Amino acid sequence: MHPLSEDMLEFHAATIPGTERVLCEELRELGFASVRLNRGGIPFRGTMQDGWRACLQSRIAARIQMLVARFPCRTPDDLYYGVQGIDWQTYLSQSQTFAVSAVSREDALSHSGFAALKVKDAIVDQLRKNIGARPDVDREDADVRVFAHIANQKAAIYLDLAGDPLNKRGYRKVAGEAPLRETIAAALLRMAGWDRKSPLSDPMCGSGTIAIEAALWASNIAPGLLRERFGFERWANFDAEAANALRLLRGALRGASRGTMPRIVAADQNADMVEAARQNARAAGVKLAFRTHDVLVNPPSGEKGFLITNPPYGQRLEMAPDFSRHFAAMCSRLHGWRLGILTASPVYQQAISAKPLHTTAIPNGGLDCTFLVYDMP
Ligand SMILES: C[S@@+](CC[C@H](N)C(=O)[O-])C[C@H]1O[C@@H](n2cnc3c(N)ncnc32)[C@H](O)[C@@H]1O
Questions:
Q1: Rounded to two decimals, what is the model's pTM?
Q2: 159 CA distance to ligand 1 centroid (A)?
Q3: In a domain, 166, yes or no
Q4: What residue's CA is closest to ligand 1, atom 19?
Q5: Same domain, 72 and 202
Q6: How many domains does the chain have?
Q7: Residue in 216, 183, 252, 139 with CA at minimum distance from that of residue 14
Q8: For residue 244, how far is its CA from the centre of ligand 1 (angstroms)?
Q9: Whose CA is nearest to atom 18 of ligand 1?
Q10: Would the pLDDT of 313 be above 80?
Q11: What is the mean pLDDT of the chain?
């Protein structure tokens, strides 16, 4: 299929657990069709160009995958012949590389590595027969990434449009010790109910991810515009006509950005981190207010707004003894503020004087974290 075809396709926007609801909301707002709330990822429908647009515009999705086939699958042969039913020349030429990963819950294919091998063999055998040559496998930097999902006696074969995961926006020039994934930061802003107009502060900003994502969102800058290339641009069917259509789409999205922004403050006690945040914000093309100070000494002040932050965790970062308790006490004094705190520590919920509006479990950096949202009375 040519990328400019108007045929409707099925997509899957992958995301981390806990962020499905806000991703679903985001994709609906962006105008995609048949968006459904689903655990582990959000299905939607659209043309192939809609899939590109999702890569460019979604702030929360980790990957956008396009369904290329779904078929009954009970045995390794079912998988092999089902995958052979796909026209792989559309996506792969002999000079391109590919990689396959699989998740299988089917008894006869319970070993996911074996299922991936069957998919790979089917692709290689088809191309060898049709063009007399086979593309190589490259696990690190494949041109075409294939995902097979096998469960309930059915297989679904997807191609990944993103390439590098979508959190790799391209603006993080300097990382801190424990940077938050950009897609998680974007999800937190939505989960906290930020309206893109109220002042926002991250007093422990590290490399600045939350503040930068807030500024991008408030300015309506599509996060994918900062990326040089997506996976779908490396497929065989991405010809000059498709490249031109993508240029036009990028231009239209660029034209939709807004100049006005609320006040967004990025602060940290570590001057090197503030400098990192400054460089990253410059690379992202957004303006923030930067401060170097200890949040316990200089709590957020001035116009009330949103404080959204990801405090240091004992397990990962050096922190002052009893920091969490002191920060929680400070939060309890932020009357009239909306707070959003992503933490692995139970101390905040015990020590903040209000009841959270909602709490959401979100895995982050190998830790079971919780995002706590409060309206401070
Ligand atoms: C988990 S990191 C934040 C990571 C950040 N969200 C990012 O994406 O890079 C926590 C940050 O809190 C800062 N920090 C620790 N204690 C602080 C304090 N008392 N005042 C201000 N910042 C502090 C650390 O320097 C560190 O950069």
A1: 0.95
A2: 37
A3: no
A4: 294
A5: no
A6: 2
A7: 183
A8: 43
A9: 294
A10: no
A11: 95
Q: Ligand 1 center to residue 277 CA distance, Å? A: 11
Long-range contacts of range 317-325, CB-CB < 8 Å, 24 or more positions apart?
317/177, 317/178, 323/296, 324/348, 324/351, 325/351
> Quick check: 337 and 355 in contact, CB under 8 A?
no
Answer yes or no: are the C-beta atoms of 142 and 98 closer than 8 Å: yes
- In-domain check, residue 206: yes
Span 254-296, pLDDT tens digits: 999 888 899 999 999 999 999 999 999 999 999 999 999 999 9
Same domain (yes/no): 26, 90: yes
Q: For residue 104, what are the domain limits? A: 9-160
Nearest to 328 by CA among 306, 352, 293: 352
Residues 67 and 196 in one domain: no
Residues with CB under 6 A from ligand 1: 176, 178-180, 203-207, 209-210, 268-270, 273, 294-296, 310-312, 317, 319
Instruction: Please check whether residues 51 and 148 belong to one and the same domain.
Output: yes
Per residue in 24-77, pLDDT (tens digit) is: 999 999 999 999 999 889 999 999 999 999 999 999 999 999 999 999 999 999
